[in-house]
Design goal:
5-stranded antiparallel beta sheet; alpha+beta; 11% strand; 3 domains; globular
Length: 813
Amino acid sequence: MTTPFSFKRDVLPHIIAVLVFLLLVAVYFSPVIFEGKAPAQHDLLQFRGMAKEIQDYRAATGEEALWTNSMFGGMPSYLINTRFPGDWSGVIHTVLTFSLPSLASNIFVTLLCAYILFVAMGMSSWLAIAGAIAFSFTSYNIIILEAGHNTKSLTIAYIPMVLAGLIYALRKNLWIGAALFALGLTMNLHFNHLQMTYYLLLLVIVFGIVEIIYAVKHGTFAALLKRGLVLLVAAVLAVGVNFGRLYTTAEYSEYSIRGKSELTQEDESPDTGLDREYAFNWSYGIGETITLLIPDFYGGSSSASLETDSETYQAFTRMGVPPVQAEQIVEQGLPLYWGPQPMTSGPVYVGAIVVFLFVLGMFIVDRRWTSWLVAGTVLSIVLAWGKNFEAFNYFMFDYFPLYNKFRAVSSALVIAQITMPFLAILALWKLLREKEQIKELDKKLLISAGITGGICLLAWLFAGTFSYTSLTDQQLIQAQFPIDAIRADRESMLRSDAFRSLVFIVLAAGLLYLYLKQKVSANIAIAGMGVLILVDLWAVDKRYLKDADFKPEVVANFFQPTQVDQLILQDKDLSYRVIYLPNPFNDARTSYFHKSVGGYHGAKLRRYQDVIDRHLSQNNLEVLRMLNTRYAITGDQQQPVQRVPGALGNAWFVEEVQAVQSPDEELDALTMFDAGSTAVVDVTKFPIEQREFAVDSTNMIELVEYEPNYLKYTYEAAEEGLVVFSEVYYAAGWQAYLDGEPVDHIRANYILRAMQVPAGEHTIEFRFAPKAYTIGNTVSLISSILLLVVVVGAIAYGVRKKPSEEEPIVKQV
């Protein structure tokens, strides 16, 4: 018998939940929402610089540039800021987040998706709200926002919705679950942080293995296969909506530092993907895993503030530093982190209460849930250990499909920050609704509290036995910082947080014990646990993104042109390049104003990276000349900008071709050559018969039109010649035209374009019109229409269809 619809029961609780989430983000991000302030998000500021030319072109023409010359001599814009009109999923995100400003919208949608997961499990709204808080306010979700990793944050945010659809489709209503799964995966893929999606895939694989084992054991494999095929179709549809983004990314990855190197490999590392050392540089320490329970066990961040009652402040004042100056030093941030990573913005802390409930869940939650949630957690932790657990992780890197495309393996703890709150809330749900059926529940509650609280107590008691020595300590000693006082503050932080976590565990365990003894109601227990979880996580989050971190006009101030910028911008030539010498290859601010030889990006072209490593980092003047580097920003107050001698311009005629037989020879040849007269060509890839050319003094070539994706030159030559263009060669999209007719062009000098041209007066054009973008955008449009039809149809069909006879998960608390 169908239960009649009730607004109070079926709609109002969800409205209240949304209002609670809006209130939480409004309070936490009040400087953003009400004052228009923003934190100095490093990666977001870099994004503003790298995307400036692309966004300006879009604003002026309404079209996508698809290529930008503002970084690394030129590169596709796919992984910077490219829009795909055929992909409608951006509209869905705007609707789901009520157009909240960035940061606030990130956490709001995380809360919403986690809430959907717990409601799909059949939990009451109040318990689902507590679960959403546990999911959303883990420290990593806040720390990555402070760093400016907004797309990573949003990719993580939609993972709970994917899991909600997956579980709902397999355990309850196939069609509604499949629609939710398709929608969640579409949004997860939309933000194109494929490393986070990859971790989701690993978790789904673990879940799938457990489900297959149970299906075979209980004779329901055929039913599982049927549902799995429907979910596969939903996944294909989600990929289809994002096909433009994924297709262009896949194409570009083959040419980027994540693709195969063309140079001879001197080691035994894989011939595709990232360098192993680079990928594993940020590996979580094995002992560092305890930060899941005790946040500042390893000192918190590499730039943490201290109060005036700290040992370091007192030591500075004893050294004769004026109190005001000493206070400024400890407030602006000190390297208090003493773990094994090169640096960190903060620990991954899922919450003392969440860890306690997670352990309890291993005792009381059904094995069908604990099997994959615990396995996923263990896998997450081991992957995050990276080079600290070589045997497993190097095997994964070398042989597991696509795993070597990703860096910063500590990010794998994203899986744990999903599985641990999930099992924790399942444990709370189980305890609240089935306390009479669970054997020795009092004992299991005590053991769980004893294990987690005991670890905290031991850490507090034996805090004095650790060295608190950091990789940066030698630098501090050389700078005459009071290192003993800093180490004393590190110990104090560990002791304080160990005791803090112990208190939260005792409070949570005490509240649940009172519920078991019928001293408080289930609703009071849920509310109390929700408040405790929120207070625990919120206070730690505020260490890393607090109100004082929000500043007015951060972006505007960062991109205020300096006198050097203004001086260079007086040069009105259509195109020339600038190099920022203090930090050329980790700086995108220069790209905001100029076309930069350097830049900031995690997936630059591999050939360009080779040139950086071998030549630009060694200040090879000939390479700077061929890149048309006209100005160098020195950072020197005496002479802040210098004119680079002999910049070759946008294009030039050469006298000879230096033929080489391999990429290695081609790259080596740039060490000793005259870029103005010689073109180095790998003739095994680009056969060229004529090797010498007569360059007449009357030869002339000039760039007369410039757009990011279009270049027009006019030239005059007395005889046939070879022109080298100071533009990066990228065959997957750039097409050359001579007097309007398509012609071939070749690669020269390892990274540049070149073309053999006839005598006379002619016009040369380069247009960037990659087929991958056109095809991908078309597929995205078709898939977006299909997704809309399928989601509406599946929900309508699922609502009308009789409830499944399979295992329900609909009991309410």
